[in-house]
Amino acid sequence: MLIKKAGDIPHSEVTPRRVYMNRRKFLVGAALVGATPFAAHPLAGWLSPAPVLADAAKLENLLKSPYSTREPQTPYKYVTTFNNFSEFGADKSDPSKNAGKFQTSPWSVAVGGEVDKPRTFTMDEILKLAPLEERVYRHRCVEGWSIVVPWIGYSFSALAKLVQPTSKARFVAFQSFYDPKVMPFGKSTGLDFPYTEGLRLDEAMHPLALLCVGMYGESLPNQDGAPVRMVIPWKYGFKSVKSLVQIRFVTRQPSTTWNAANPPEYGFYANVNPTVPNPRYSQAMERRLGGPFLGERINTLMFNGYDQVAGLYAGMDLRKNY
Predict the structure, then answer these.
(1) How deeply is 170 buried, as exposed, middle or buried, from its count of CB atoms within 10 A (0-12, 13-18, 19+)?
(2) Distance CA 196, CA 255 (A)
(3) In the list 25, 245, 266, 288, which could disulfide-bond 258, CB 3.0-4.6 Å?
(4) How far apart are CA 285 and CA 74, in angstroms?
(5) Is 33 exposed, middle or buried, given 0-12, 13-18 or 19+ CB atoms closer than 10 A?
(6) Among candidates 105, 137, 316, 133, which has minimal Cα distance to 233?
(7) Domains of the chain listed by start with CATH number
């Protein structure tokens, strides 16, 4: 059998591969749940049999990034079957079950707004804009779960510099793909789509802000934001917008999906901050997926441990600007 690698063929010709959870994994997971009522357990959805894992193609010649943490990586099965992608449903297991037929080729991302050189990038162009790096980042969600993932991509600033933001640009607005025919499950979440997110320009231009095209040595699975997404490691997970189709450089702070839906819980800045509790959750501790007993509890770090970004918020009240 001839297996082509990502470097040999364009993104538009990648052949899908389907991977399913087998019964052995289901039984092992069920044993770990133990005495916890199965239906009520937060990992119950992940432990359901046979969720679809999405398509992937191997990515080669990856540079090792100096920004990577040396912490143990979260097993792939957790990151692909226990995640948020609201367009495919509200439950953590929904994206892996519902995103399998999502078509991500051909794909393009339109970049415009306050820029001198607006441009629409094809996925093949995005893959070649800058050398691809593997960056092992911590990732923290507002519900208290965290993961460590070897993401693949390059600093968002590499794309931004090509379109040349003007002096009027102060923020960057991101928009995800949305088609209710393809994503009917999103209606159950009560959110308004398409999903939108935003960053201040200086945040987006920080080298840690990652334009991401893959993980674990491969292109992104559908349920994890294929084919291209953002990863902002010092912010809560909902800021890392998935399946990008539009980027605009703008003068004013853009409206964002979760902030519009529930401002008390989802601030625009959304920096990981153990001292500022969510109305429903303390943010002082987190549970690292993949550890013993369904995840080791550890202390949450300010900015998720990425102290390099602290200067971006000098003089700001991070309780008010949460």
Answers:
(1) middle
(2) 7
(3) 266
(4) 17
(5) middle
(6) 137
(7) 18-313 (3.90.420.10)
Q: What is the pLDDT of residues 52-100, one digit of tens each?
A: 444 579 999 999 999 999 999 999 999 999 999 999 999 999 999 999 9
Single out the residue of 132, 128, 96, 124 nearest to residue 210, CA to CA.
132
Once rounded to an integer, what is the mean pLDDT over residues 216-238? Answer: 98
> Token pair of 188, please?
């159950």
3-state secondary structure of 28: helix
What DSSP character marks residue 16? P
Question: Cα(80)–Cα(52) distance, rounded to whole angstroms?
Answer: 9
Calpha distance 137→128 (Å, rounded): 22
Distance CA 101, CA 84 (A): 17
Distance between CA atoms of residues 61 and 141, nearest Å: 30
Report helix, strand or coil for 77.
helix
With a cut of 90, say whether residue 23 has pLDDT above it: no
Say how far apart CA 142 and CA 149 lie, in whole Å.
17
172: left (phi over 0), alpha (psi -120 to 50) or beta: beta
